[in-house]
Design brief:
30% of the residues lie in helices and 38% in strands. By secondary structure, it is α+β, with helices and mostly antiparallel strands. The strands form two sheets. Strands 3, 4, 5, 7 and 8 form a five-stranded antiparallel β-sheet that branches. Strands 6-2-1-9 form a four-stranded mixed β-sheet. The longest helix is centred in the first third of the chain and has 47 residues.
Length: 206
């Protein structure tokens, strides 16, 4: 083989190598583009495919009532016993809950969550009977006695329920006023819980 032939073969090999490199570059860019397109498709699917939450709601009003309790100093038989006293905050919450799903929602519990310096304090709210009993026990409470909300209510598709619940915390007004956060949780059977935060100021009974 002559030198001319060798040089020609080397040039052909170099040309083929350059073409191979160009082809590889095209494959890389095509792979990147494909990954981007697939990512966009997945994102669109996730955004459009997500179902809205089954329940929505809002906190209409919150009343906080400070109450100091002191025992009588007598037991059931009339014998003297040491007196005990404690402070509590009664939290009345008027709420509206809407079922925007296609199926009934079964309320399984309602809770009030207060965040203090030492963490989150949770009190499960009394249902309609307990709510009404509070007004019997404390007739001087300056809170509107509207309909109570059942803690085991069934909310039909498209239905909106509204009512008031009450929770109790063993704390004084100073501790309550120093809270860092306040929210409410509503549990449903086989469905995610609904968490609501009041938007209006809490009404405090002085």
């Amino acid at each position: 083989m002559s030198l001319l032939q060798q040089n020609g073969q080397e040039l052909d090999d170099a040309a083929r190598g350059e073409e191979f490199t160009k082809g590889t570059s095209h494959v890389v860019w095509a792979s990147i583009a494909a990954v981007v397109v697939v990512s966009i498709i997945i994102a669109i699917y996730m955004i459009t495919g997500q179902k809205p939450p089954p329940a929505t709601g809002e906190i209409l009003n919150v009343w906080a009532v400070a109450h100091h309790t002191e025992t009588s100093g007598f037991d059931a038989s009339g014998a003297n016993i040491p007196k005990e006293s404690f402070d509590q905050m009664l939290i009345f919450t008027k709420v509206r809950i809407h079922n925007q799903s296609e199926y009934p929602l079964y309320l399984t519990g309602m809770a009030t969550n207060v965040t203090l310096d030492d963490g989150i304090h949770t009190s499960y709210a009394a249902g309609r009977p307990g709510y009404n009993d509070v007004f019997l026990a404390y007739p001087d409470i300056k809170v509107p006695h509207g309909p109570g909300l059942d803690s085991d209510a069934t909310i039909k598709p498209g239905q909106t329920v509204e009512g008031t619940m009450v929770s109790s915390f063993r704390m004084n007004k100073q501790q309550w006023d120093a809270r860092k956060d306040l929210n409410f949780t509503f549990g449903f059977q086989y469905q995610p819980a609904l968490k609501l935060t009041p938007q209006a100021a809490v009404i405090t009974d002085q």
